Amino acid sequence: MSFAIVDLLKGGGNDYAKIAQQQEQQRKQSITRGTADINQAFSGFTPSFYQQRAQAYQDFAMPQLARQYETNRNQVGFNLANRGALSSSAASKQWSNLARDLGQAKQTIADQGIGQAEQLKQGVEGQRQTLINQLYQGADPANAGASAVQVAAGYQQPSTFAPLGNMFANLANQYYLSQLINSYRPSSYVQAPPTYNAGAGALPPVSGGSY
Predict the structure, then answer these.
(1) What letter does residue 209 receive in the DSSP assignment?
(2) Measuring CA to CA, how many Å separate 56 from each of 51, 123, 177?
(3) Distance in angstroms (rounded) separating the CA atoms of residues 113 and 115
(4) 73-76: which pairs have CB atoms within 8 A and are 24 or more residues apart?
(5) Which stretches of 42-168 are DSSP H helices?
(6) The pTM of the whole model exceeds 0.85
(7) Residue 180 and residue 72 in contact, taking contact as beta carbons nearer than 8 Å
């Protein structure tokens, strides 16, 4: 009788081990399937996607920079003409400063676009990893896949950008301009440097003495 009980217990132990093994195998399969679904949902986040987001920021910011450049260009020109200094060395320096600030602003916009794209990339990858961690805990591929699709769709929406700050603040804070801005804000000026066309893809160079 005792031998029969021992044999029964041994047999039951083997059954439990087999069931546990089957459950673990099913869990691994669920995790594999869920991981594939998550990765598929995030498959659109390629290097090209992030490059397009960086470019989208530049497309947003450059027309604003063009308007700021136009305003400051006119202010510099009026100030020089008002002082009768259009052909002076001071004029060359002021146009040089305007060109310098323009170049720095263009580089800043490019860097900000890249930075925003990188920040977006980190957010996307963080969410993908969070979903995978949740999958390992719950082994629910259907829920993981549905959540991944929803999260990915949110990140694929166009980004919202803040308005561009004053990229010519250093120039505007100079004494000869700060006095002028308070009393006069011209809309145009004769013989000004080339006007920037936002559709042309590049801001114009400004050379000293070309005013």
Answers:
(1) T
(2) 9, 18, 33
(3) 5
(4) 73/98, 73/189, 73/192, 73/193, 73/206, 74/186, 74/187, 74/188, 74/189, 74/192, 75/172, 75/177, 75/180, 75/181, 75/185, 75/186, 76/171, 76/177, 76/211
(5) 47-82, 89-138, 141-155
(6) no
(7) no
Among 129, 144, 128, 130, smallest CA distance to 31 is for: 144
Quote the pLDDT of residue 211: 38
Closest CA to 59 of 116, 123, 121, 125: 116
Q: Alpha carbon of 201 to those of 61, 66, 193, 196: distances in Å?
A: 12, 11, 17, 9
Q: How far is CA 156 from CA 5, 43, 142, 146, 199, in A?
A: 63, 11, 21, 16, 26
Q: Residue 159 region, left (φ>0) first, then alpha (ψ -120 to 50), else beta?
A: beta
Do residues 42 and 148 lie in contact, with contact meaning Cβ atoms separated by under 8 Å?
yes
Q: For the packed helices 175-183 and 47-82, what is the interaxial angle rounded to 10 degrees?
A: 80
* Res 13: pLDDT: 57
Measure the CA–CA gap between 202 and 66, rounded to whole angstroms.
9
User: Block means of pLDDT (10 residues each) for the chain, length 211 residues?
Assistant: 51 72 85 93 96 96 96 87 82 89 95 96 96 88 91 92 90 56 46 48 46 38
